[in-house]
Specification:
Layout (H helix, E strand, L loop, with lengths): L1 E3 L12 E6 L3 E8 L2 E4 L9 E2 L1 E5 L2 E4 L1 H9 L4 E3 L24 E3 L2 E6 L5 E2 L5 E3 L4 E4 H20 L5 E6 L5 H13 L3 E7 H10 L9 E8 L4 E9 L2 E10 L4 H19 L10 H20 L2 E10 L2 E8 H7 L1 H17 L9 E5 L6 H10 L5 E3 L13 H13 L4 H7 L13 E7 L5 E7 L7 E8 L5 E17 L15 H7 L16 E20 L4 E8 L5 E7 L6 E4 L1
Parallel strand pairs: 2-14, 14-15, 16-21, 21-22
Antiparallel strand pairs: 1-15, 2-3, 3-4, 3-5, 6-7, 6-8, 9-10, 10-13, 11-12, 16-17, 17-18, 19-20, 23-24, 23-26, 25-28, 26-27, 28-29, 29-30
Bound molecules: adenosine-5'-triphosphate.
Adenosine-5'-triphosphate (ATP) binds next to helix 5 and helix 6.
Length: 585
């Protein structure tokens, strides 16, 4: 879950801490007040602050103001650089940088050349000496950006921010983490901890006063501008373990922008057959892109949105509208990609969608209603889907990570750097967890043996859980059988109809794969569905204990204690009685 990165820095009592999300597209800053996290708006009133720097006449602009300069001043505007931190030039993908300052190879170091200083001018403003452009390493760019970001937080809070918890994608390697910490340190920020993005999102939800700490499997879909990162997280006794992750650089926000850009460019050309294609001119393309993104965001709220650009191409103004249904149709293949990504990561974790208790949609693209609707089609109704369009109590997905980071920052701010190092040891991510459940066998009314789970699979160890189980009504001697358990998916086929019996060998997965093309948009084909449910299977017996003379209507308490070395101690006793049986496995 975390990386131990604190370094000798500010004394705990002198710290002012915030949470930072530093994305390729946008960044956010948050702080806590009375244990509640709040996202800070910068001087422009933005809570999602574009991760962009731009230089005009020697002045540095950041955020939304810098983004606007992508149209008029792209060469001196640096965007989409976060993922280059800690990487050699050879290993970066510069796809997203073609419309802004291009990354360059300076002895393997990713760098950008921008004119960040003004020319020397006389009193009339005439240039008397041109000042050369500067070549800035990605470290320098990130440092300058983080300095501005934290500067906004300091202005807002009225005191200098000293320290932060920063979120990182789950696939950031040590070099990338080190590079991020170095940039933050150079910007004057002590990094208390780096926490992974999905854990930050889960924390933001779990910290709500109404949240109950429960054992659960959570899928966090972090859908951003240039990348989508999905993780399966097991939350057991308040401890988070990442079970599987998937990363995709195709299905993300810019792919949706591209769909709208193409759509409106074609419409423009249809209306103005002799005009130049706006996609072939850098300035027109930049205008098209900015407006397409705005239209896309408007379509997340309303059923219709307008698109309007002055002088789009050849000096011709263009205005149009689009409704959500049309957008969802033209963007269908991108929108469906998110489902496949989420399904793949659940599978990678060795789980079934029925195992998933909660799906958290995080990141800007998660505002898209169709993505949430499509996901709701693959999960059972028992899975909580936390997205603004499907759940009114969902937290703004653009704010989740910064909030989680701020909450974590406020939790650990009182510790010395060395203690943070210890208590947030990197081992947390790779903590051992039990593969099978541990529980007891009970006999139901039909006389069948059933499994009652006590410790769930994927629980991080050490772990201790207790259950109370009703003894047979008559009381007497009770035999407690402690066993391993695992789940499997029971598929009940519908009663065969006269026609078209489903082939016995066709599994549900096969059926899903074949139906890729018709799944999400045609709700009308109401076919009888197979019923799928998760059932427990009793595995090997771990221990048996006899409890003598249980009272009529009495209960038996079973405690399972799994140690860090995976050894297990089981204690059983009658509730309310003294003594008990204890055994080590
Ligand atoms: P990445 O690192 O993947 O580039 P990020 O984490 O920096 O992304 P986010 O702010 O999470 O950035 O996501 C940005 C994306 O979310 C952009 O493509 C943006 O257009 C999109 N987005 C923001 N708000 C909305 C909205 N209301 N509806 C649809 N898309 C949105």
């Amino acid at each position: 879950m975390s990386e131990s990165v604190a370094q000798a820095g500010t004394a705990p009592e002198d710290r002012t801490v915030i949470g930072i999300t530093f994305g390729n597209s946008n960044s956010s800053i948050a702080f806590t007040v009375d244990d509640k996290a709040e996202v800070i708006a910068n001087e422009d009133g933005d809570r999602q602050i574009p991760t962009i720097l731009s230089y005009v006449d020697g002045d540095e602009y950041y955020g939304q103001q810098a983004k606007a300069f992508l149209v008029r001043n792209p060469k001196n505007t640096v965007a989409y650089f976060r993922d280059f931190l800690g990487k050699d030039f050879k290993s970066i993908d510069p796809t997203h940088n073609h419309a802004s300052a291009h990354p360059q190879d300076v002895d393997g170091v990713v760098s950008f050349t921008v004119k960040d200083k003004d020319d020397k001018k006389d009193e009339e403003g005439e240039v008397i000496e041109e000042v050369a452009a500067s070549t800035l390493s990605v470290h320098e760019v990130a440092t300058r950006y983080l300095r501005r970001l934290v500067g906004s937080a300091s202005d807002y809070l009225g005191k200098k921010v000293t320290s932060a918890v920063i979120t990182v994608p789950t696939n950031f390697n040590d070099k990338q983490k080190e590079a991020l910490i170095a940039a933050a340190n150079a910007a004057g920020i002590e990094v208390l901890q780096l926490i992974s993005e999905p854990v930050a999102a889960v924390l933001a939800y779990d910290a709500r006063p109404e949240a109950e700490v429960e054992d659960k499997i959570v899928v966090v879909a972090e859908l951003g501008g240039t990348r989508s990162d999905v993780a399966v997280v097991a939350s057991r006794g308040g401890m988070y373990t990442i079970l599987a992750t998937a990363h995709d650089y195709e299905f993300a926000g810019v792919a949706l922008d591209k769909v709208l850009m193409d759509h409106f460019a074609k419409e423009f050309l249809k209306r103005n057959s002799s005009a130049a294609d706006p996609r072939e001119n850098a300035k027109s393309l930049a205008k098209l892109r900015l407006e397409a993104e705005a239209t896309k965001k408007a379509l997340s709220i309303g059923a219709n949105a307008s698109f309007s650009v002055e002088s789009l191409s050849d000096g011709i103004d263009f205005a149009s509208t689009i409704n959500r249904l049309r957008y969802e149709t033209i963007a269908r293949s991108v929108l469906e990609g998110f489902n496949r990504l989420v399904e793949s990561v659940v599978k990678k974790a060795g789980l079934d969608v029925l195992d998933v208790d909660e799906v958290i949609l995080s990141g800007g693209t998660s505002h898209t209603p169709r993505i949430a609707q499509n996901l709701s089609n693959i999960f059972p109704s028992s899975t909580r889907l936390l997205a603004p369009s499907t759940n009114p109590s969902a937290i703004n997905p653009s704010e989740l990570q910064a909030r989680g980071a701020a909450l974590q920052a406020s939790l650990i701010q009182e510790y010395d750097a060395a203690d943070i190092d210890q208590s947030t040891h990197a081992a947390v991510t790779t903590v051992s967890h039990i593969a099978n459940a541990i529980g007891v066998v009970s006999v139901n009314e039909a006389g069948e043996e059933t499994f009652i789970p006590i410790v769930y699979p994927e629980t991080a160890v050490p772990a201790r859980r207790t259950v109370h189980i009703a003894a047979p009504k008559a009381g007497g001697d009770v035999l407690v059988k402690v066993v391993e358990g695992n789940t499997h998916i029971k598929v009940t086929k519908p009663e065969p109809k006269v026609k078209e019996e489903v082939s016995k060998s066709a599994t549900v997965e096969d059926a899903d794969d074949e139906n890729e093309d018709d799944s999400d948009f045609s709700d009308d084909e109401e076919e009888e569905e197979e019923k799928r449910e998760k059932v427990w299977k009793i595995g090997s017996t771990l221990a048996e204990a006899a409890i003598r003379g249980v009272k009529k209507g009495g209960k038996v308490e079973v405690t399972v204690n799994v140690h860090a070395d995976l050894s297990v101690i089981v204690t059983t006793r009658e509730v309310g009685a003294k003594g008990g049986v204890r055994g080590q496995l």
